Amino acid sequence: VQLVESGGGLVQAGGSLRLSCAASRTIFSVNTMGWYRQAPGKQRELVASITRGGVIYYADSVKGRFTISGDVAKNTVYLQMNSLEPEDTAVYYCWSSTGYWGQGTQVTVSS
After folding, report:
1. In angstroms, rounded to a whole number, what is the distance separating the alpha carbons of residues 89 and 53?
2. How wide is the angle at C-alpha 74 spanned by C-alphas 72 and 78, nearest 5°?
3. CA separation (Å) from 81 to 7, 59, 66, 69?
4. Which residue, 13, 42, 51, 90, has fewest beta-carbon neighbours within 10 Å?
5. Which strand (E) or helix (H) includes residue 50?
6. Contact at 8 Å (CB) between 103 and 38?
7. What percentage of the chain's residues is helix, strand, coil (to nearest 5)?
């Protein structure tokens, strides 16, 4: 099983990107899916997550700018990123609570 991500790229500060993630085949018993990111020289951090029941978490640094959505039961999750800042530059990873990770997609925000 793989989590397949798409939607990264290069954007100017203030711009938007939408990340998508879907499982290559159905993963059962997934309770939560989300997005992590890792910037050069920094630890991987949780950006946002969503549970099967619709409970959502955002890191303080992205509240009001990013929106997570998806259908955890169908193993799909999206991240709408608005008002992007250079500090958002990182590799973004899709994640599931059953321990699967995506390969990562690069997001670069230029000033």
Report:
1. 30
2. 60
3. 11, 13, 4, 11
4. 42
5. strand 45-51
6. no
7. 5, 55, 40
Residue 82: HSE in the Cβ half-sphere, 13 Å Cα cutoff: 6
Assess contact for 79 and 54: CB atoms under 8 A: no
What one-letter code names the amino acid at 84? L
pLDDT digits (tens, 9 = 90+) for 81-95: 999 999 999 999 999
- Average pLDDT value for residue range 37-51: 97
Tell me the torsion sign for CA atoms 20, 3, 95, 5: negative
Burial pattern 18-28, b for ≥16 Cβ within 10 A else e, equals ebbbbbeeebe
* Nearest alpha-carbon partner for 4 in 99, 75, 52: 75
Q: Is the pLDDT reported for residue 59 higher than 90?
A: yes
Q: How far is CA 67 from CA 8, 56, 59, in A?
A: 15, 9, 11
